[in-house]
Amino acid sequence: MNRRAMLTSGFAAAAAFGLGTLRTNASTEKFEIMRSEAEWRKLLSPKAFNVLREAGTERAFTSPLNDEHRKGVFACAGCDLALYSSDTKYDSGTGWPSFWKPLPNAVGMKEDNTLFSRRTEVHCRRCGGHLGHVFDDGPKPTGKRYCMNGVALKFIPA
Hints:
By secondary structure, this protein is an alpha+beta fold. It has a single domain, classed as Metal Binding Protein, Guanine Nucleotide Exchange Factor, Chain A, CATH 2.170.150. Helices cover 19% and strands 25% of the residues. The strands form two sheets. A six-stranded antiparallel β-sheet has the order 3-4-8-7-6-5. A three-stranded antiparallel β-sheet has the order 2-1-9, with no helix packed on it. A hairpin with a 5-residue loop joins strand 6 (119-124) and strand 7. The longest helix has 14 residues, at 3-16.
């Protein structure tokens, strides 16, 4: 098998498992705030667009919000909906801002089976923007770790 055939078969396998395509949250679901791709691109930075609208992930330890310790609220960078209180933020050691509980009626969740794993995706319930994932290895009282992309959030000091 030559190199081109090997690469082609590798890309075909990746596409079959959903690895070669970008996932968007707004594909079939309806949210309070709906915008076209062009409108989102105009509103968001390229990195924020990649995470919020294409379910990308920022590199660990790159978000200034990981080190944000003031009192306040972490809101959706796409629609300004308050998502997490600073009272529920903690250092998970993962390199992403982490919380043990969202604010009431702030986030939605759905199963995410990309990258050969089963996870629970967390998105903004108002605009559908991808925020990150939730895991069952967090602190008490919930035991949850809402591992969020900092670029999907903005901090509003109290």
